[in-house]
Structures are given as structure tokens and as C-alpha cells.
Amino acid sequence: MNVTQSIRNPGSINVYGSYLLRADPDLALVVFDVDRVDAQPAEAFAATRSAVEQVRKFLSTAGVASADVQTTRTTLQLATTGYGVDMKVIGHRAKVGFSVTVRSLDNLESIVVGIVGAGAHSIQNVRFETSKLKELRAEARRGAVAAARDKAQVYASAAGVGVGKVLHIEDVNPESASRRGHAVDLDLSAFDESAGTPNGALTIAAAVMLAFAIVT
Fold first, then answer.
1. Do 20 and 140 touch, CB atoms closer than 8 A?
2. Are 37 and 44 in contact (CB under 8 A)?
3. In this predicted structure, what is the pLDDT of residue 6?
4. Cα separation, 186 vs 18, whole angstroms
5. How far from 137 is each of 141, 149, 151, 203, 206, CA to CA, in Å?
């Protein structure tokens, strides 16, 4: 078995700690395109601009703040149908991309339906997020440090030595750590299992490598 040693010249207690917590999402990011096809580029642009205005009007009526509506520049490309030798050019497609933050999940379904009704042909993605991500990541990082310290104390006790001051702190990507074979110290103590979690519940993870001085 190969063991990856990220701390060079080890002369200490080197441990990996990780922490996972779950959080209910309180907002959603809706990603979609508004596009129109016409034989003439100018007409495609005009039709797309009109559809974009209808979508913006709906979002404003639905209570979505203008700051929560992000759009891309209008792009133009050939519109085709079929594949390979059967492919035919049918005109020009003008497209504008939207990214809309919905801060009331109770209104998400009606807003998605309204977006399509206002002019979007389809919704590309709906991603659930949390406005408390910074605070939750900080909590997960503190938990990862605590997990690493607890592990160091177990090893030190078993070896008949003590845990001294911290000599090295290294932030670790939890996903890459998992791929390298580090075990995840699952800690969901902040999550009430009896309450259940909704579909789309978020998992926030943190991981760290710590080196502690050995006290003899």
C-alpha cells in the first residue's frame, strides 16, 4: 500500500483531519438560455431581444431583484438541423444566457414555470445553494482541525508520548484527499437526523493536514 506523505522531513505527529456537515439550501441558481432563430441575423437579434425583455419583465413581477439576474452578451451562430451529411443550415440563432438567483425556495417552481412561459425554451440547470456558505465552511474547517487534534492525541497516547504545539498546517481539498485514500472523519453532530433533510440538501466539507510536536 502506498502512503502519501505531504509533510517533508517528518519529525512530528502528522495527521489528517476532515469534517462534513449538512445544511438546508436557502436559495437556488437557475441557469437557462433565451434564443431565437431567423433566416436573417438582424431578425434573430430582434426576436431574442424581445424575448429577453419579456423574461426580465416576468422576473421583476415575480419579485426577483435586478441584482440577482445576470446575463451574458448576445451571441450569434448558424442554426442547423440534422447531423453529418443530413445537416442543413436553417438560419441564424441569437442567444442570451441567464443566471438567476432565487432567494425564496417556496417560489422556485412558479418562477421556473414563469421563465419558460416568458420566453426561455428550456432550463439548463437548477442548483441549490446556501447564503451561509462562508460561515459553514469556517465551521467545517474548525471541525477538521479538531478531528486532526483528536487523532493525534489517540496516536500519542498509544505511543506513550504527548502532543505538543502545532508545527505545520496544510489546507487539503477533501475531494482530492478522498481520491488519495485518506479516510473521511465523518462528523454530522451539528445535524439533527430526526428532522430529516430535504432533497438537494448540501454537504460542506473541509480537510487539513496538521503536524504536532512530540512531547516526551
1. yes
2. yes
3. 61
4. 7
5. 6, 18, 21, 10, 7
Residues 149, 140: Cα–Cα separation, whole Å: 14
Residue 176 pLDDT greater than 80, yes or no: no
Per-residue pLDDT reduced to its tens digit, 19-47: 999 999 999 999 999 999 999 999 999 99
| Integer Rg of the chain from CA | 26
What angle, rounded to 10 degrees, do the helices at 108-118 and 41-61 form? 150
Tens digit of pLDDT for each residue in 129-174?
Answer: 999 999 999 999 999 999 999 999 999 999 999 999 999 999 999 8
Closest among 62, 65, 69, 61 to 111, alpha carbons compared: 62
Total residue length of the chain: 216
Helix (H), strand (E) at residue 194: none
More confident position, 192 or 166: 166
The grid coordinates listed for 64 are 426577483
Task: Please give the pLDDT value at position 196.
Answer: 40
- Give the number of other Cβ atoms within 10 Å of residue 97's Cβ: 16
The set of cell numbers assigned to 114 is: 414563469
Cα 124–Cα 95–Cα 93 angle in degrees, nearest 5:
115
Residue of 129, 130, 127 lying closest to 30 (CA atoms): 127
Contacts of 15 (CB under 8 A, 6+ apart): 148, 151, 152, 155, 209, 210, 211, 212
- E strand spans, 146-201: 162-172
Nearest to 168 by CA among 3, 1, 15, 4: 15
